[in-house]
Amino acid sequence: MRNSAFQVFKQALQGDVGWKPVWRSPDPKPEYDFIIVGGGGHGLATAYYLAKKYRQANVAVLEKGWIGSGNVGRNTTIIRSNYLLDGNEPFYEFSMKLWEGLEQELNYNAMVSQRGIINLFHTDSQRDAFVRRGNAMRLNGVDAVLLDREALRKECPFLNFDNARFPILGGLSQPRGGTVRHDAVAWGYARGADQHGVDIIQNCEATGFLISDGVCTGVATPRGQIRAKKVGVAVAGSSSRVMAKAGMRLPIESHVLQAFVSEGLKPIIPGVVTFGAGHFYVSQSNKGGLVFGGDIDGYNTYAQRGNLPTVEDVCEGGVAIMPMIGRARLLRMWGGVVDMSMDGSPIIDKTHIEGLYFNGGWCYGGFKATPASGVAFAHLLATDSPHETATAYRFDRFSRGYMIDEKGMGAQPNLH
Q: What is the distance of C-alpha 315 from the center of its chain?
């Protein structure tokens, strides 16, 4: 069933009894051409583009929980392409362009809101660094605007410009940045993949891989063995645990990244604002809640919960630039387990095991990369060659000395 204003009106007149499930719940078949392990945003997007773009309908997505239970529903919803390095900037700009047409592509309201993102700077040297980043963005055809103090004050008059410790001197703006409803992305891709024949199998954990003579021929699950010509793994913070079942040790650490939502407030923040003297980023949802986050917690974990010192640190950053939020009540908080690579950039590549492919190491950037990651991983699975925007995202870059160290901190919590 396609969504439309007519369909909404028709169903309302009929008492909303004609709506069908958004996707099927099939039993797994004994064999597929492709199995995608992980039913988050990246896994679902990969399956969708495999089916639609590469005409591969015999595809299964295996999700150990339910659709939307992982990081795709546990993030701060920000999309942007304001990166510096050549290995990253074209990829994230490709993703941004896909976001701009996503709702029409999927026929699903993902609430894409391009209200802009502003990165604040507080020192002359930080301003120079943002000038460099903005120039790199513009060389790649990406929108970037440097705001001086007065221009920024017109955009964000609520900021504490004269903070004694962190005076705000200006900001780097990407007007096309913004936010997207995170769980709607999962539902939209799941619905689209299902409509193209993909089997989405929930509560079906990959407990092992069927590997013989260096070739992966399928996956072991509690519902039996499922064979496939190719297996792609996109499981975010569970990457190391899952790939260990194939005997692989990844250059990845798992950390929890907390996110928060305040009580509903009147409209305050025009888009997304990030603190330059600490790690704090905030936007405002359609319901009025402030959605914000900051650093990863300083220890390795697979638990979707955080600790109080990080809560305190994040809230301190917010109050430093916006003292008026100090009396706002915190409505809820959650944690997502992020896969932190050693250089802070992702991996989309074949493994040394024939038929086994990997997508992970997204660090803070997983949600904003969802559409491009899906296209790039689908391209790799379908053609055995990297997508043109993801040629740098290889396993061997660490041994070859071609790291893409966007911020020079990788998985080190003490550097964030």
A: 23
**Tokens of residue 271, six digits:** 């888009």
* Rounded distance between C-alpha atoms, residue 380 and residue 233, angstroms: 12
For 47-80, b/e burial (b = at least 16 CB within 10 A) is: bbbbbbebebebbbbbbbeebbbbbbbbbbbbbb
Residue 252 half-sphere exposure toward CB, CA atoms < 13 A = 29
**Of 353, 358, 349, nearest to 384 (Cα)?**
349
Helices 182-195 and 41-52, interaxial angle, to 10°? 30
* Antiparallel, parallel or unpaired: β 289-300 and 281-284: antiparallel
The DSSP H or E segment spanning 180 is none
**Nearest alpha-carbon partner for 71 in 396, 380, 373, 411:** 373
Partners of 179 in beta bridges: 78, 113
**pTM more than 0.85:** yes
CB 344 within 8 A of CB 84: no
Dist CA 127 CA 171 (whole Å): 8
Tens digits of residue pLDDT in 273-328: 999 999 999 999 999 999 999 999 988 999 888 888 999 999 999 999 999 999 99
Which tens digit of pLDDT belongs to each residue from 92-131?
A: 999 999 999 999 999 999 999 999 999 999 999 999 999 9
Please state, in angstroms and rounded to a whole number, the distance separating the CA atoms of residues 163 and 362.
34
Contacting residues for 131 by C-beta, under 8 A, at least 6 apart: 146, 172
* Token code pair at residue 22: 């958004």
DSSP-assigned beta bridge partners for residue 211: 216
Amino acid residing at 387: H
Kindly report the number of other CB atoms within 10 A of residue 156's CB atom. Answer: 21
- Burial class of residue 415, CB neighbours in 10 A (0-12, 13-18, 19+): exposed
Q: How long a stretch of residues is the chain?
A: 416
Q: Cα 138 to the chain's mean position, in Å?
A: 23
Distance from C-alpha of 131 to C-alpha of 151, rounded to nearest angstrom: 16
User: In three state form, how does the secondary structure of 300-357 look?
Assistant: ECCCCCCCHHHHHHHHHHHHHHCHHHHHCCEEEEEEEEEEEECCCCCEEEECCCECEE
- Two tokens at 201? 């199998």
User: What phi, psi does 159 have (nearest 5°)?
Assistant: -75, 155
Sheet containing strand 330-341, strands side by side = 145-148, 170-174, 117-121, 272-274, 281-284, 289-300, 252-264, 330-341
